[in-house]
Amino acid sequence: MAEKGKNIKKVPNLRFPGFEGEWEERKLGDATLKINSGKTPLGGEAIYVSKGVLFIRSQNINNNRLELERPVFISEEINNGMKNSIVEPNDILLNITGASLGRSCVVPDDFVIGNVNQHVCIIRLNKDNNPRFVQPILASHKGQNVFISLQTGSGREGLNFESIKKIHIFFPSLKEQNRIASFLSIIDERIRTQSKIIEALNSSISGLQKRIFTQKLRFKDEKGKGFPKWEKKRLDEIISDFIVPMRDKPKELTGEIPWCRIEDFDGKYLTSSKSGQGVSMVTVKEMNLKIYPVNTLLVSCSANLGFCAIVKKQLITNQTFIGLVPDAGKVNIEFLYYAMKLSAKKLNVLSSGTTISYLSREQFEKFNINRPTYQEQTKIANYLSALDKKIELETNILKRLIQQKQYLLQNLFI
Fold first, then answer.
1. How many CB atoms neighbour CB 1 within 10 A?
2. Are residues 64 and 202 in the same domain?
3. How far apart are CA 305 and CA 347, in angstroms?
4. Which domain holds residue 362?
5. Diameter of the chain by CA atoms?
6. Looking at beta carbons, which pairs linking 293-298 to residues 24 or more positions away fall under 8 Å?
7. Are residues 157 and 43 in the same domain?
8. Domain membership flag for residue 305
């Protein structure tokens, strides 16, 4: 995608063997048969029917795909009155208004019939160009920046058809377009497959966690015998200290002890501030700040109640959290992490009587959890941690695939 005012070389950084020559710069409008959107018929949602012609809205275009998990339909009569916006296989659909502006997809080959509302633009290329070559360009970082620069309207930002037609794109031969599109389709399919693997694992693990903590799935000891019944315990019976942070925020955040907020939570463990903010020991002493020791369980006590992480490096947080320091021998920190995560719904119900969702130290002290023996806690924690590591492994594979695609988008195109 060409950028104004720049003298750009007319060949990509990466190229498949057998292709030579410069690419041709053209306006998108010169490569298309149609660029237009639909409209929303009078009557709003009342016009939707249980069966009929698929009616595509901006929320159906996500993750570079046409997602139709919750489809809506319009009648044949309404569709016939909107013939100019009937969708065909291999059309590019582009969201042109609202928060999802710039999202796009290619309509599948096996698509039968559909229509679009006024928030979705149809880009129908001529036979000399491949939509699966053009759509990744529109979805790329460079393409999204172009859309940002073209937005119009003081209230709801949007793109108009004339500005879309004037977008400059470098095109190779159709044969080279097809080669690039085919290769990227393989990457996209691998990304979708990996996403489904992670989704299935998460669903399976969620089900296992519920079965474990409702005691429908039990573990056995080293001799193959069942463990005793679980006991209901108040947190103040198994927690040696409840650390409530100071409300005052330090003015200087350039020290060596990480200053963490909920934005820094990313997985089970917490070790640092993503923004690099920290508090010095001088500030800690001056303000009498509370430092969470290693293996404290941080639990959100405001807004996102039940949001948890285990401290793996001494750190400080704002007043959004309470720190639960386990009593050694009574509760396994990893077990406590899973137990409190699964208690999020109960915590939110407990705070529902307040104007702003908040739980005090006293409420946490009185909060009950079911606790097995320490030996069974450890078995449960080890089992669930191993599943977490499997999720982490599969997630890292997905991240690498996405990074690979981003690299290709930056180097296979001009």
1. 21
2. no
3. 6
4. 231-370
5. 76
6. 293/325, 295/325, 295/326, 295/333, 296/243, 296/323, 296/324, 296/325, 297/323, 297/324, 297/325, 297/326, 297/333, 297/336, 297/337, 297/340, 298/270, 298/322, 298/323, 298/324
7. yes
8. yes
Judge if pTM exceeds 0.90: no
Q: What is the CATH number of the domain that holds 120?
A: 3.90.220.20
Establish if 14 belongs to a structural domain.
Answer: no
Helix ranges (H only) for 314-367 are 333-341, 344-350, 361-366
Q: Quick one: 247 and 328 in the same domain?
A: yes
Task: Tell me the two tokens of residue 143.
Answer: 């393409």
DSSP 8-state assignment for residue 240: E
Q: What backbone phi and psi angles, to 5 degrees, belong to 10?
A: -100, 25
Q: Which residues of 155-251 form beta strands (DSSP E)?
A: 168-171, 231-234, 239-243
Residues with Cβ within 8 Å of 70's Cβ and at least 6 positions away in sequence, in order, are none
Number of domains in the chain: 3
Q: Whose structure tokens read 């058809």?
A: 161
What is the distance between the alpha carbons of residues 111 and 286, in angstroms, rounded to a whole number?
Answer: 67
Q: For 318-349, how does the pLDDT look when each residue is reduced to its tens digit (9 = 90+)?
A: 889 999 999 988 999 999 999 999 999 999 88
Q: Is the dihedral of CA 170, 175, 176, 179 positive or negative?
A: positive
Q: Are strands 239-243 and 120-125 parallel, antiparallel or unpaired?
A: unpaired
Termini Cα distance of the chain? 6
Alpha helices in 214-299 (DSSP H): 235-238, 281-287
Work out the mean pLDDT of the chain and round it to a whole number.
93
| Amino acid at site 65 | R
Q: Report the run of H or E that residue 259 belongs to, with start and end.
A: strand 257-260
Tokens of 359: 């739980």
Work out whether the CA dihedral 138, 18, 15, 12 comes out positive or negative: negative
